[in-house]
Specification:
Subcellular location: Cell membrane
Largest sheet: 2 strands, antiparallel
Strand content: under 5%
Membrane topology: Multi-pass membrane protein
Keywords: Cell membrane, Membrane, Transmembrane, Transmembrane helix, Transport
Oligomer: single chain
Shape: globular
Helix content: over 70%
Structural class: mainly alpha
Protein name: ABC transporter permease subunit
Number of strands: 2
InterPro entries: MetI-like (IPR000515), MetI-like_sf (IPR035906)
Radius of gyration: 23 Å
Order of helices and strands: HHEEHHHHHHHHH
Strand order of the largest sheet: 1-2
């Protein structure tokens, strides 16, 4: 346990160091010339400023008014992290519902769901975002009922619709991979043993097989999270959400970039490591996510 904790601390320090090195990279090409000295100088400034995060300031690009970075950065972080984790929960819920439908109907229906999954998965991210907004607008014009807020206005931050939109691609990614993993699990001895005991198909699927499928799905955690983070910037911009990625896009000072990136990646890293430990305990096998 102590060794695992020390490894986590070491990896966290490496992540922070990597972020700091990347944040100062713009100084390598100062005045369109390659300069190691300007990079080292910028690196020192970033490191020095991060030692006193409570003193970090940002300047409004329009009014040039300077303000303290905290607590405003935490508000942006809270908006982004709510959207991110809510979208993961929604994606898992939708993928499991699709899985139930998939195994409840005939081959024609199964083929239809798989075709829909392939079609949605091939759509551009921005198309899904715009389509979600247009659907809400169309429904409002037809019925006069606004199902959900379309964009953030002032302190009223829209969370649900961005989370739903962000969950679409991961949901079909989860669903497609679940089907594949279930096919791999189907021929294993424990499934045949459960069938011989007279257990129903859905009992075997959701009590016995699903646990192993979710473990297999966790191996793709990094891929899913990177995909969602890359979509988060576009999503926050189009929904006018005051989130961490939109804050980074507006205020790109190296030390601010480093602090915001650390705030974004550390919780995700901790979640992945907790999943790794839980799966290792459940299966008795060492795994790396």
């Amino acid at each position: 346990m102590a060794k695992t904790f020390m490894n986590m601390v070491g990896e966290i320090l490496l992540i922070i160091a990597g972020i700091i090195f990347i944040s100062a990279a713009s100084a390598l090409f100062e005045n369109q010339t390659f300069s190691i000295m300007s990079y080292i100088k910028q690196l020192g400034e970033v490191f020095s400023e991060l030692l006193s995060p409570h003193e970090l300031i940002y300047a409004n690009p329009i009014s040039d008014i300077e303000r303290k970075l905290f607590p405003i950065l935490l508000l942006a972080f809270w908006s982004s992290i709510r959207i991110f984790f809510l979208s993961i929960v929604l994606a898992l819920a939708v993928s499991i519902i699709l899985l139930i439908f998939y195994f409840s109907f005939n081959k024609v229906f199964k083929k239809g769901i798989k075709s829909l999954s392939f079609f949605v998965g091939s759509l551009p991210d921005i198309f899904i975002i715009v389509l979600a907004q247009l659907t809400v607008v169309w429904f409002f014009k037809q019925t006069g009922i606004l199902l959900i807020d379309l964009a953030s206005v002032g302190e009223n931050q829209v969370i649900l619709l961005p989370a739903i939109t962000l969950s679409v691609l991961p949901a079909f990614f989860f669903f497609t991979n679940m089907i594949q993993f279930l096919r791999e699990e189907k021929g294993k001895p424990y499934v045949e043993l459960a069938s011989s005991k007279g257990l129903t198909h859905f009992t075997i699927l959701f009590i016995h097989m699903m646990r192993n499928v979710l473990i297999s799905l966790t191996y793709h955690g990094k891929q899913i999270m990177w995909m969602m983070i890359s979509n988060l910037l576009i999503l926050e911009y189009l929904f006018n959400v005051f989130g961490l990625t939109s804050f980074l896009f507006t205020y790109n000072k190296p030390s601010i970039f480093a602090m915001a990136s650390i705030l974004l990646f550390l919780p995700l890293y901790i979640v992945m490591k907790v999943l790794q430990l839980v799966i290792s305990r459940k299966t008795g096998k060492e795994m790396s996510i």
